[in-house]
Design goal:
The chain is mainly α. Helix content is 76%, strand content 0%. It has 2 domains: 160 residues, no CATH class; 173 residues, no CATH class. It contains 14 helices and no strands.
Length: 393
């Protein structure tokens, strides 16, 4: 009987459909660039889309429930075969899943014509389908310990439904946005807590002797628990003092967590260093959330949100996409100059957006952030499209 690797190599369809990361990383990055390129003209009233969502709603939804799920799909559809030893989803089933995601983007764009309900049903179908496919593969591979990743996907699904309900029916008060962001942060903490120390250790053992990342321990479990409580409190009571206190505690604990991973020793390899920098936006987001509650006159609430979205989500997705694409196409795991420029662009986008939240040169910072974000994700498309669209054989 042929091994899994041999069966993968026997795939003869289009290279772009040979693994989940190929269409979803490419499509997700392209959409991230296009959505932000359209955002500022929409906000200024110079561009009108036939969407039932207002400009701000569309902006939030398409990054949180459009771009992010695409990258999550690319990651999970690539990681699950490694976890289970089963064949990856390829060919027609993968194309169907990708087209479901793409249909969601298009129908939200023209939801003013199709109606909010039809748009919601089509849009939500992607996350539901992704959860079903991943659950099937994990259960069939008898790898049920990894079902926990579906909690974050499930939260995204719930958040998306809530977002549509709030937009279409006027129910709730930003719960759909907060649930989605909380799910993203939890997923970064869960997956990042596995891959960052692992990749860092793998690289450091080939360098000069020195400190190595601390292994996963009870401390990490405690950090996750406190952070989960802080995020749950924020979803339910975004302005409450208890939320601020929990967020402050979670910020301190997550700072200690990332410090345990020896990131300061990885400066020579940006492909590893960027993972640590991306995770650092998680504790920063908690700390900014606490500051925004304690001193709202100093920091707008968007400061914490954009530390998590533009910072943690933006930079971590870029770090994962660049590394996974190199590894799974047989390229050396090192950041070329062009990849480093992509990282720098996304980092500048995150920092500029956080600065804008302090009302410091707000308009210039918003434009700098948007421009840098578009350059970063469009840069990924330009650099990686040849790798993702063709076979390495």
């Amino acid at each position: 009987m042929a091994t899994t690797a041999e069966q993968i190599r026997r795939y003869t369809g289009p290279a772009i459909l040979s693994y989940g990361f190929r269409p979803f990383f490419l499509g997700g990055a392209a959409w991230a660039a296009l959505a932000i390129a359209a955002w500022l003209p929409m906000l200024a009233g110079r561009l009108m889309l036939p969407s039932a969502f207002g400009p701000l709603e569309w902006h939030v939804h398409e990054l949180l429930y459009g771009f992010l799920p695409a990258v999550i799909a690319g990651f999970l559809l690539t990681a699950v075969p490694n976890w289970t030893g089963r064949l990856p989803v390829t060919g027609t089933p993968l194309l169907a899943l990708f087209l479901t995601w793409l249909a969601g983007r298009l129908v939200i764009l023209v939801s003013g014509w199709t109606g909010a309900l039809a748009a919601a049903v089509i849009d939500v179908a992607f996350l539901a389908g992704l959860a079903a496919v991943v659950a099937r593969e994990i259960i069939a591979g008898n790898n049920t310990r990894n079902l926990r990743v579906l909690l974050a996907v499930g939260l995204l699904l719930v958040g998306n439904v809530a977002f549509h309900a709030e937009s279409g029916l006027g129910i709730g008060d930003g719960h759909g946005t907060r649930i989605g962001i909380a799910a993203a942060v939890l997923l970064i903490m869960l997956i990042g807590g596995r891959i960052i120390p692992s990749f860092t250790r793998n690289w450091l053992v080939r360098q000069a002797p020195g400190r190595l990342p601390a292994p996963f321990a009870r401390f990490d479990v405690g950090v996750m628990a406190v952070s989960g409580a802080a995020l749950a409190s924020w979803v339910a009571l975004p302005d409450h003092t208890a939320t601020a206190l929990l967020a402050l505690t979670a910020g301190v604990l997550n700072t200690a967590r990332v410090a345990r991973w020896a990131g300061e020793r990885t400066a020579a390899e940006p492909l590893v260093l960027v993972l640590h920098v991306a995770y650092a936006f998680v504790p920063l987001g908690f700390l900014l959330l606490a500051l925004g509650i304690f001193a709202p006159n100093v920091l707008a609430p968007a400061g914490a949100l954009h530390s998590w979205t533009a910072g943690a989500v933006g930079l971590m997705t870029m770090a994962v996409m660049t590394r996974a694409s190199l590894g799974h196409t047989g390229r050396p795991l090192t950041a070329t100059r062009s990849i480093q420029m992509i990282y720098l662009a996304v980092l500048v986008a995150a920092l500029a957006r956080i600065v804008a939240a302090f009302d410091i040169a707000r308009e210039p910072m918003l434009h700098l952030s948007a421009t840098a974000w578009v350059l970063g994700f469009a840069g990924f498309v330009v650099v990686y499209a040849p790798l993702l669209a063709r076979s390495q054989r």
